[in-house]
Amino acid sequence: MDLGISTAQGCRFGSKPTLKLFGAALLPKRGPWLMLSAVLLASGCGLIDRSGPYGVAEDLRVSQTKPYSSPAPLPSSAQPQADQSYPVVETQVSPAAVASPSETYAYPQVDSDPASQAGALDYQSTPEPYLDLAPQRYSSAEVGRQLRALIAKRAETHPDWAGQLDRFYTTYGYQPIWYRGAWSSEAQIAAETLANSWADGLPPRRYVPAEGIALEQAASLHAVARSELALTQGMLLYLPELRGGLTTQSRQGLPLLEAALASGDFAGALERLRPQTAQFQGLRKAVLTLPMDESAKRLVALNMHRFRQAQTSSQTAGRHVRVNLPGYTLDAFDRGQHVMSMAVIVGQPDRATPTLSDRIVNLKFSPDWSVPTVAASEDLLPLLKHDAKALVDKMGLQAFRNGRAVNPLTVDWNRYSASNLPFTFRQRPGPKNAMGGVRFSLTNPQDIYLHDTPERELFGEKVRMISSGCVRLADAEKLASWILKSDQGWSRAQVRRAMQSGQTRIQPLKQPVTVDLVYYTALIDRQGGLQLYPDIYGKDAELAAQLGL
After folding, report:
1. 52, 53, 59, 54: which is closest to 4 by C-alpha?
2. Are the C-beta atoms of residues 525 and 533 closer than 8 Å to each other?
3. Which of 350, 399, 486, 540 is an S-S bond match for 535, by CB 3.0 to 4.6 Å?
4. Could you read off the pLDDT of 26-47 as tens digits, one per residue?
5. Phi/psi of residue 249, each to 5°?
């Protein structure tokens, strides 16, 4: 399978687009910077697979027209709902667009299973049958004696795991759980679940022997006991990670396995441990139905882990805004219903927009702009050295020292550098102000917020990592109108006049609007298609290394 991924877009004050904001004639055009950004992004944008383990189409590629098709629709509980949906963007799954090698997602190679450090599955080098479906051959007492011997041997190298296994089988009088003269239906469910654990974003090598799960007759009593023990240990490790992800402590598996076995519905108990959100279930469906190699499965697994760990705002209670940074998109919801989507610009890599959950507490119309310290020293100072008069006359720039206004035209800017700049800077409200006509004020200490921009042409860029960290909106007027219509009864015409007035006005909200800035590189869109986005800030590689994927 070749999966080609087209990049989206990004933001920053110090980029050449912002230099353009302070006078396009002052510095060269931004072409080299954008070309470098595209080169940097291209290394994380594709997936390759040649044959699918589930008998689905041989090639899965990305086009701009239609989502992947699956043999059967998602169950109603897994269908992406409006509150979990994402807009259609330019990366749909269908036979088209071959990815170049530079667009392939790369993940660190793991030489050994990190779970082995905790005593995870300790199999002999000689392959033996893993699951015996033969008719009754050995008694529970015989298998129980073999289990005692195997666990005692395990204690020599992995005492923690041996202790858990001993406590588990002691509860059942050292009788086998999965094998009672023949393998139970729960045994078959457990074996199949562990072998296909990629569907839950979990690597099977953590839970099953290297030779896999062979449904064949066991050759000896020892083989039956060993398979029984492997199923138990695999499930003890798998169940807590099924619920909480790869960082979950394995010792939580004992109560989970006991509860699942006692439920009378083993398969149902497993399903209830999985996250039930439409996004998680949709990604799970994609792994089961699309031909993916392990690199592709790792990519989806990383995002399934993020959904397990997500602590974002409820999308069913009132108004909610979500920005997916790698997708360069904003989505708004009202009581779970999707309201709008728009393109955004985000922070460039060295001034990355952070992930966070916050609230819009007021709208600041015709805002002034206090230039951030980093942007002032790295971006603005070179422009002042080149032509301070243009910045003052055309852009409305003001300078301050120790809180007192200073005429920028009387300062010898060549005396200063990023390390000794004693000035702060402010841009007056107006049509060329970097904040545009409105700022959506948040409460976070990083001074990250959403805002308008006069540089409309930048939303046509494929790579939109351009800002100093804040999020620029393609249609700030539309978002402001939606917020203020229900909160204050404003019309769109009122919003437009406030944005264009040139007089700064802060409009507090009666009901703050929740905002989540999130980082997902694999999502299910509103049409059920799998969307893949480039790892713009390298967070996939970091998380893969952390989880051992």
Report:
1. 59
2. no
3. 540
4. 333 343 333 333 333 333 333 2
5. -70, 130
What pLDDT score does 28 carry? 38
Contact 342, 473 (CB under 8 A): yes
Cα angle for residues 510, 511, 517 (degrees, 5° grid): 135
235-256 burial: b if 16+ Cβ within 10 Å, else e: bbbbbbbbbbbbebebebbbeb
Over 90: is that where the pLDDT of 305 sits? yes
Does residue 304 contact residue 283 with C-beta atoms inside 8 Å? yes
User: How many residues make up the chain in this entry?
Assistant: 549
Q: Residue 342: enclosing H or E segment and its boundaries? A: strand 337-347
Spatial contact of 429 and 366, defined as CB atoms under 8 Å apart: yes
Task: Report the run of H or E that residue 358 belongs to, with start and end.
Answer: strand 356-365
Characterise 145 by phi-psi region: left (phi > 0), alpha (psi -120 to 50), beta (else). alpha
Residues 6+ apart with CB under 8 A from 258: 168, 171
d(CA 202, CA 274): 12
Interatomic CA distance for residues 124 and 220, integer angstroms = 15
Place of tokens 């007192």: 404
Name 486's Cβ contacts closer than 8 Å, sequence gap at least 6.
319, 334
* DSSP-derived 3-state class of residue 64: coil
Name the helix (H) or strand (E) containing 363.
Answer: strand 356-365
> Cα–Cα distance between 491 and 518 in angstroms, integer?
30
Which run of H or of E encompasses 495?
helix 492-500
Gap between the terminal Cα atoms of the chain:
20
The b/e string for 370-382 (b: 16+ C-beta within 10 A; e otherwise) is: ebbebbbbbbbbe
List CB contacts of 264: < 8 A, sequence separation 6 or more: none
Burial class of residue 69, CB neighbours in 10 A (0-12, 13-18, 19+)? middle
Going from the C-alpha of 150 to that of each of 226, 229, 264, 370, the distances in angstroms are: 7, 8, 28, 69
Kindly report, residue by residue over 251-274, the tens digit of the pLDDT: 789 999 999 999 999 999 999 999
> Which residues 6+ apart lie within 8 Å of 77 measured at CB?
276, 281
Q: C-alpha distances in angstroms, 477 versus 189, 334, 408?
A: 54, 17, 33
Rounded distance between C-alpha atoms, residue 126 and residue 260, angstroms: 32
User: For residue 186, what are its two tokens?
Assistant: 């729960």
Contact yes or no for 42/498 (Cβ under 8 A): no
Strands 471-473 and 450-451: parallel
Q: Beta strand pairing status for 337-347 and 465-467?
A: parallel
Residue type (1 letter), 285: K
> Which residues fall within 8 angstroms of residue 443, CB to CB, at 6 or more apart?
358, 359, 361
* Interaxial angle between packed helices 221-244 and 159-171, expressed in degrees from 0 to 180 and rounded to the nearest 10: 100
Nearby residues of 237 by Cβ (< 8 Å), 6 or more positions away: 115, 120, 121, 206, 207, 250, 253
- What whole-number distance in Å separates Cα of residue 328 and Cα of residue 460? 12
- Specify the 3-state DSSP secondary structure of 29: coil
For the entire predicted model, the pTM comes to: 0.71
